[in-house]
Amino acid sequence: MDATSDKVTHVITDEQKIKCNFLVTALSQTPRSLFPGNLTKTILSKAIFISDGSIKASSKNEVTFLRLVPDENISLPVTVLEVGSNVHVSPQNIFVVYCWGLSQSEDSKKDLLPVAKKLFNFTNENSEKPKLLWSCYYNQVFVECNPDCLPHKNMFIVSPPSNELDYDFAISEAKKIFSSMFPNEEFLPRAPDPEEIILDEPQIETSENDRLH
């Protein structure tokens, strides 16, 4: 650190000192002493399930995407994504289901077990629901890192994965960081179309004898 300019000047890793003009790092790699002053934390409840059948049977084993709304058993809106062998993530007739939502209790199993019971058969009796073969529940903390709250002007901490299904937030954050680092540069300029690419052919020098022949 440079105390006079309040900037990060180098990083030490594996006994190597690397100079830098900017530092972009993940929150998990940031010392607590450098954490932003105001951290906005959101706790997500997530679960992974493996079943012997699809929650929405289809002859094509299509990818299934659902949004479950709260009811008398489910306390939070839950996003459900099911994939199978058609996208090469599991053997034939085995399905992987991902569930996630904003935690209501900071206990992922308490939040999402009612979802599992709604989607899967937990008994040995015959049922239209697929049988649950394996499950894993866990919580993930999402922290939005506001660059304005960082202790050093040239340091940027990227936020971990959030509750969003797409990449809009990640792209927006990357653009904001890039613009702070290079205000006069274009963020992700359009790549040229193939027909716009002109390749210079190498010039072949010929001697006087070659021209005579």
From TrEMBL:
Residues 44-161 form the RAE1/2 domain. Keywords: Cytoplasm, GTPase activation, Transferase. It is found in: Cytoplasm, Cytosol. It holds the Pfam family RAE1_2_domI_C. InterPro entries: GDP_dissociation_inhibitor (IPR018203), Rab_escort (IPR001738), RAE1_2_domI_C (IPR054420). It comes from the Eukaryota. One of its GO terms (cellular component) is cytosol. GO terms for biological process: intracellular protein transport; small GTPase-mediated signal transduction; vesicle-mediated transport. One of its GO terms (molecular function) is transferase activity. This is Rab proteins geranylgeranyltransferase component A 2-like protein. It comes from Leptotrombidium deliense.
